[in-house]
């Protein structure tokens, strides 16, 4: 008699919520649970909340493993979160051991960008690739490396902080302390900042970009820059040209470093679609050395908001 197939659980531990899903081996999400982290006062309460969401989605199913994604420095080999989520008493806790003890199933911890990379490789835009680099352009730039079919973690599991590779040593100050990191030019936050600077320096001080933001009553964001550029706003188009240039430089560094056949781009900026991807493909093709041309594809991410859950669960897919 066939045994019921085992399910896998993915947990996305964020700064504001714990989101947990039950997946089958094909990556289909069968159940989902979510808990806010506000009000949790100790690491014990946080761990209990994680366990509760897992118990809730698991139901009667047998679980093959629990993958958990967290922002920040996650030491995958030792199963601890070094720093990351802003939760009480959290740093240095052996979360993997705690989950395994309480749930009696194998558990793995992973950085959220690495989870997204692995999720896209197993179930998303990177399916079938040999080597894939995942880049998320959101408030910052996160990335993850799948090299020759394996998630590459590095000595301390901290590999893939490509957002903090420097593209301009005289550039803007980055949160990490360096100047001109890639993410100071190509993250969503950076696009908005460059647009605001351009608008402030313009003679009229007002452009279609600022008008769109004001009409919505929200701060200028990357979305408005793309909208205004589509309406032929010159300042928006110039801003995007610079963003595309620096994004292309970042991709050039990736291509020259890792020779991937696939680069998957996620995050809010990737939702701009062809208006972003077409000029980016053109610019990157100009920047890379000749032998690399035609060796890689640049694709938008396929997994959406649940990429952290799906990618963490996919750690248990062979
Ligand atoms: Zn930096």
UniProtKB/TrEMBL annotation:
Q: Which Gene3D superfamilies match?
A: 3.30.420.40
Please list the GO terms describing molecular function. Answer: glucokinase activity
One Pfam family from the record: ROK
**UniProtKB keywords:** Transferase
The keyword Transferase is annotated on this UniProt entry = yes
Keyword Electron transport found: no
| EC number from the UniProt entry | 2.7.1.2
What superkingdom heads the lineage?
Bacteria
Give the protein family: Belongs to the ROK (NagC/XylR) family.
Protein known as: Glucokinase
- Organism listed in the record: Paenibacillus favisporus
Upper lineage ranks? Bacteria, Bacillati, Bacillota, Bacilli, Bacillales
């Amino acid at each position: 008699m066939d045994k019921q197939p085992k399910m896998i659980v993915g947990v996305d531990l964020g700064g504001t919520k714990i989101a947990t899903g039950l997946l089958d081996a094909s990556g289909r999400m069968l159940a989902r649970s979510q808990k806010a982290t506000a009000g949790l006062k100790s690491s014990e309460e946080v761990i209990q909340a994680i366990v509760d969401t897992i118990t809730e989605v698991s139901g009667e199913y047998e679980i093959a493993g629990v993958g958990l994604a967290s922002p920040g420095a996650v030491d995958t080999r030792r199963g601890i979160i070094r720093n990351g989520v802003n939760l009480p008493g959290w740093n240095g806790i052996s979360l993997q051991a705690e989950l395994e003890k309480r749930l009696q199933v194998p558990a793995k911890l992973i950085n959220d960008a690495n989870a997204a990379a692995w999720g896209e490789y197993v179930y998303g835009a990177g399916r079938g690739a040999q080597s894939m680099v995942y880049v998320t352009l959101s408030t910052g730039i996160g990335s993850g490396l799948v090299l020759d079919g394996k998630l590459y973690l590095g000595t301390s599991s901290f590999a893939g902080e490509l957002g903090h590779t420097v593209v301009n040593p005289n550039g803007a100050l980055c949160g990490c302390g360096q100047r001109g990191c890639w993410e100071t030019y190509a993250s969503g936050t950076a696009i908005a900042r460059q647009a605001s600077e351009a608008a402030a320096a313009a003679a009229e001080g007002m452009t279609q970009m600022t008008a769109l933001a004001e009409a919505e009553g929200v701060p200028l964001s990357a979305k408005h820059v793309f909208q205004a550029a589509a309406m032929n706003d010159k300042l928006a188009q110039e801003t995007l040209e610079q963003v595309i240039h620096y994004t292309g430089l970042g991709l050039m560094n990736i291509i020259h470093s890792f020779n991937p056949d696939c680069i998957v781009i996620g995050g809010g900026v990737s939702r701009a679609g062809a208006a972003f991807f077409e000029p980016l493909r053109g610019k990157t093709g100009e920047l890379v050395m000749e032998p690399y041309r035609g060796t890689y594809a640049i694709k938008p991410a396929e997994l959406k908001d649940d990429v952290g859950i799906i990618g963490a669960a996919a750690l248990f897919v062979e």
